[in-house]
Amino acid sequence: xxxxxxxxxxxxxxxxxFAFAQNAAPPRVQASVVRPTELKAQSYSDAATIKLLTQNxxxxxxxxxxxxxxxxxGGTLGWVKMLSLRFDSQIEKSSGITSATKGLFEAAKTxxxxxxxxxxxxxFDKSKFENPMPNLEALAKMKQFxxxxxxxxNFAKQEKLNEQNQAYLKATGDKS
Length: 176
Description:
Strand content: 15-25%
Largest sheet: 5 strands, antiparallel
Protein name: SH3 domain-containing protein
Signal peptide: 1-21
Keywords: Signal
Radius of gyration: 26 Å
Low-confidence stretches: 21-25, 91-96
Number of helices: 5
Distance between the termini: 55 Å
CATH architecture of the domain at 26-91: Roll
Order of helices and strands: HEEEEEEEHHHH
Organism: Undibacterium fentianense
Region (Disordered): 149-176
């Protein structure tokens, strides 16, 4: 019965979503402040501080720029560090139709899984992963710091360091 209702309602919901999509505002995400945090005028540490946000206060996240989040706090726009925010509930302000469609799909779920929000690869844009560019100048500079084995051995003896052999850990799928 439940599946028949979902199958019958699905085309109607999808059509109504399409019809209202042009007028719908982008989803807004609400987050809480995990520690007292300065609301900055720009997305860098030495920018002017607009005001101090208290711990557990709520902000509306508007956009992201590297490790900074543009937020609206009590009518004031500004920037805070990403790690100063907690996205516990992922509350979206959306239209009733969007919520209804989302609820319909959630009702059809058979597993008891839940999503987790985490920060990964902070400060990188998607384009930096899709189009990586080697920095040959940095590689050449890094090679200048190379120390010959003899020189490293002499330093270790001078500092009375003992040689230690470490076995490599085998990785999953390692054939050696």
